[in-house]
Amino acid sequence: MAGLFLQDIHKHFGSVVAVQNVDLRIPHGRFVCFLGPSGCGKTTLLRLIAGLERPTRGRILLEEADITDQPAHQRNFGMVFQSLALFPHLSVGDNIAYSLRIRKADASARQRRVDELLELVRLPGYAARHISQLSGGQRQRVAIARALAIEPRLFLLDEPLSALDAKLREDMQLEMRMLQQRLGVTTILVTHDQREAMTMSDLIVVMGTDNQVHQMGTPLEIYRNPADTFVADFIGTSNLLKGICSGSRQVTISGKTLRIEALPENVKAGSEITLSVRPEDISVVAGVREGESHLPGRVAFVRDVGSSVEIYLDCSGFQIISQSTPKSRPAVRQGDTATAVLPPSACVVLTA
Amino acid sequence: MNRALRQLFLALVLIFLASPIVVVGGVSLNEKKSLYFPPQGFSLNWYVELFTESAWLIPIENSMIIATLSSLAALSIALPLAYFLWRYRVFYARALFMLGIAPFMLPPVITAIGFLTFWATVGLYGQMVATIVSHAIFFVTLPLVTISLGFESIDREIVEAAETMGADSKAVFRTVVFPMVRSYMVSGYAFCFVLSLNEYIVAYMVSGFTVETLPIKIFNALRYGYTPVMAAVTVFFVLLAALIFGLIGRFGDLPRLMGALAPESRNN
Amino acid sequence: MIEDKPKGLRVHLPILYPAVMLVVFFVIPFGIMLAVSFFQREPGGFYTTDFSIDNYANLFTMLFGRVLVFSIFISALCAAICVAVGFPFTYFITRMRRKAQVVWLVILVSVLSLSAVIVAFAWSLLLSQTAGISNLFVWLGLMEKPVSWSPGIWALTAGMCYIAFPYTVLVLYPPLSRLDPHLPEAAQTLGASPVTTFFTVVLGSLRSAIVATLIMVFAFTLGTYLIPQILGRPQHWTLSVLITDEAVYHSNLPLAAAMAVFFMVVSLGLVGLTTLIGKSRGPTTQ
């Protein structure tokens, strides 16, 4: 099964660029997240896929059929909106059955499907209730049930959990993930919350403030090997250190040489680079140590949040954050001299 | 296809709304004293007559005075009422609001008769002050509704923030409430003014025989003999209204004043 | 500070002036009018203070009945036309960009503010023989010679719709502009064509607003006084015209007052009905 193809997609609103240069392939049956800060174009991209907007340039293909010019109501996709958009004048059952009604399914078929879906989203017997009587989480589930009623080819969700409180959100994340795995429907979810994306998806598409796609990959790939500084910074926390490449296996940061394992293809000695290292990969030792992975400095701040300890080190013009567990906490205090150890395997060299 | 149909529909409505005005405009420019369209001969005579003949100038003056003063009076009643209802929770709030709404909700004839009997009893029938007060009460609904809308739009937290910074209720009114409600007051006044200028029946019943306002004059002119000056008056009124509301539209947030929500930004 | 309970007498000061004004100049006049409706007419003058229900008995004449029925009929017709055209119209307006909306709103509000006299005059001109659109039809070859369509029943209808239309739009504007724009989009993703969306979702979710508007426009047009006089023949005169006629030309203030009170009861009943419908916004299962 080929999946969804976005070819050279651009979208402008007048002179404002919403989305540009997007080429993506979304494989069939996967849970994909469009992730990025607000204004990056992820919702616009979703709406383009849904058919609620037309691309200024580019084609959209589903299973090799060109659907670019197909109007939204013919695409057979299910969509959950950020505001949920439940029809206030219809009951829960009638909301869910809406698409079936359009397709002229008979009453008993509709009833069966509604009951089936209510079971699926764990709201059995709610068919006769009014929308106004439901809680936020319940409305959420009705919106999901409604979108899935016709067994859509694509399941699209626009920041569906943003209005829920933290605990409910976490519960819903797991529920939705399990639902998707059970049904096997290709799902695209838009979010600005990277933890949400990391929890729920098979693949993440990271978009940036330049309205382009920066990287697409599994959560782990993106975390371990960010494509550029934007992705490194947006996903989790990262120490980003600017320097120069000074050899095939080393870089120089503020006069100090550090060993690294691999360089990206187009980087040669003398190119400007940024080194990305995750705090949990950096260890801190007391005192000054020299070495090919060591950056000496002074402890600026120690933050003990219970489950982890963060140490902020000022090293030759940079502030490096190290994170460790309480067990392996180094014996340093604010003001002490200490050295950060950056293992080569954890250093990622980025050019942009 | 859908788009073209929609444009056509809107165009038809526009034609419906505009054609009487266009015809009247044409007639007002007619050279001779007859009602022909398209105009035969082009002249601004009638406009000149409108603004120089005392037969027309007096009604214009009367209407202007009445409009200016009654709108001010209406505003003076509506503002404290709306403020009180917004600030305090009293069990009779709804009743008071209904009382404020009532004059405008009833058919004008009824209100006019009510005023007629009242002023006749009090002995001020036929005086301009009677018209002014009657208009003020009749139109109080408008500023009341718009100003209430304005109060509704004040985020409670802004008031609370001001209070935490040391503002007492007078200061809150002066520095927070009033500036935010000001534009609604202006639009309420403008509405009142324009409607008062155009109002016929209350003015007629209360003191129509002694205080001739412009609409009364026009109606009389209609009954007793056509003159294209009436067309000139019509055009004048339309332009005046368009000017006033155009200014509000240009400098204020007209959609929000009419009940829409604040504009949302297109995101993502 | 907001929604406190007012403490002490001083605090009630802002409410005093409006309350007094409204009571003195609104409640009392109506009280007087109610009283007058029970009085006897004095020929040549105003009235003598008396108590009789003769005036109300007079209401049950054929003339009054016929006029009442006609008034209700023509108002209902205009309300129906205005809402039928006004609803989609307002819907389109609320979907436009802000700037375009402002232009349309200014146009509508300017038309709304026009005096009934002016509207009546303009329409009488538009439908007249010498200056009216029948000339246009002659020119287009659709008619043989220009005719005058005013005064007449269609002139009256056109004039009333013209007056009521901007009012209809302005009443529909708040609920329509607050309609969640995602609702029609959701319907589309569920397979509804734009037309189906409009009828099932847009109309559906605004059912109570539509009914309320119909009633409000009905009540509004019921009060027109000038349009029927200028654009309609005597058989088209509505209740408002009748009332003024009695009050001014026949100097029968008590009878006019009685009619006005009756009229007021009907109007208030309608407004009450609107509020009731507004309250019971429960959705129904189809």
Notable features of this structure?
heterotrimer; A: 352 residues; alpha+beta; Rossmann fold; OB fold (Dihydrolipoamide Acetyltransferase, E2P); 2 domains; 6-stranded mixed sheet; 5-stranded antiparallel sheet; B: mainly alpha; MetI-like fold; 13 helices; globular
Radius of gyration of chain A: 25 Å
Order of helices and strands of chain A: EEEHEEEHHHEHEHEEHHEEEEEEEEEE
CATH class of chain C: Mainly Alpha
Helix-strand string of chain C: HEEHHHHHHHHHHHH
Beta-strand content estimate of chain C: under 5%
Largest sheet of chain C: 2 strands, antiparallel
**Beta-strand percent range of chain A:** 25-35%
Secondary structure blueprint with pairings:
The complex is a heterotrimer of chains A (352), B (268) and C (286).
Chain A: E1 4-13, E2 16-26, E3 31-35, H1 42-50, E4 57-62, E5 65-66, E6 77-80, H2 92-102, H3 107-120, H4 136-148, E7 154-158, H5 166-183, E8 186-191, H6 194-200, E9 203-207, E10 213-217, H7 219-224, H8 229-234, E11 239-245, E12 250-253, E13 256-259, E14 272-277, E15 283-286, E16 294-304, E17 309-315, E18 318-324, E19 337-341, E20 348-350
Parallel strand pairs in A: 3-8, 3-9, 6-7, 7-8
Antiparallel strand pairs in A: 1-2, 1-4, 4-5, 9-10, 11-12, 11-14, 12-13, 14-20, 15-19, 16-17, 16-19, 17-18
Helix pairs in contact in A: 2-3, 2-4, 3-4
Chain B: H1 2-28, H2 45-52, H3 54-87, H4 93-105, H5 108-122, H6 128-139, H7 141-152, H8 156-164, H9 169-198, H10 201-207, H11 214-224, H12 229-251, H13 254-257
Helix pairs in contact in B: 1-12, 2-3, 2-12, 3-4, 3-6, 3-7, 3-9, 3-11, 4-7, 5-10, 6-10, 7-9, 8-9, 9-12
Chain C: H1 13-36, E1 40-41, E2 47-48, H2 54-58, H3 62-94, H4 98-112, H5 116-126, H6 134-140, H7 153-177, H8 182-189, H9 194-205, H10 207-222, H11 226-231, H12 239-249, H13 253-279
Antiparallel strand pairs in C: 1-2
Helix pairs in contact in C: 3-7, 3-10, 4-7, 5-7, 7-10, 8-9, 10-13, 12-13
